[in-house]
Fold DNA repair protein.
Amino acid sequence: MKKILSAILVSSLLLLTGCQSAYYGAMEKVGIHKRDIMVDRVKAAKESQEEAQKQFSSALEEMQALLNHDGGELEVAYEKAKDEYESASDAADDVSGRIDKVESVAEALFDEWQNEIGEISKASLRQKSQTKLKQTERSYNQMLKSMRRAESKMAPVLTAMKDNMLYLKHNLNAQTIASIKGEFSSLQADISSLMNEMNRSIAESNKFISSMEP
């Protein structure tokens, strides 16, 4: 059974790699190179982070409205907060997926670039291209680290939100809401930290995009 599972996994990985290679090859035939795809994916990742910022802010606002509820149906306020939490969770998933796509094309681009440097016969041009590659890799790695740091801060915030939503779900009354107000300031601080980290990541993305575009 283990051998069969291993074979399936290897086949899947080979298929995925082949699909990516075929995709990049097809795009190059119409004049869209890995560099162009990488810039587009970094832009998409940046936009997904901006959208996630909005969703986390909205979730925080609805939770605050729920905790400060002073009349009407608690159930309605709870459902609004729950919907915004779920939207924030979806937005976080989108951010992770976009970053993964950036990594995928970056690996392909840098491998191709390094291989093609070896095909340059003139030493001075080969050295210039190697220097440019290293500069681009450093800039990329700095941006990627910033993206991943921001991404890592989303999970704890979502966990705290989920805990609150589940706790309130079966105990939706004024007394229960009052009991978790003390935790809200901590959640506010975590989201503020997340927003700051995402702003840094977005700034790094803009910097990288500018360095890659003509």
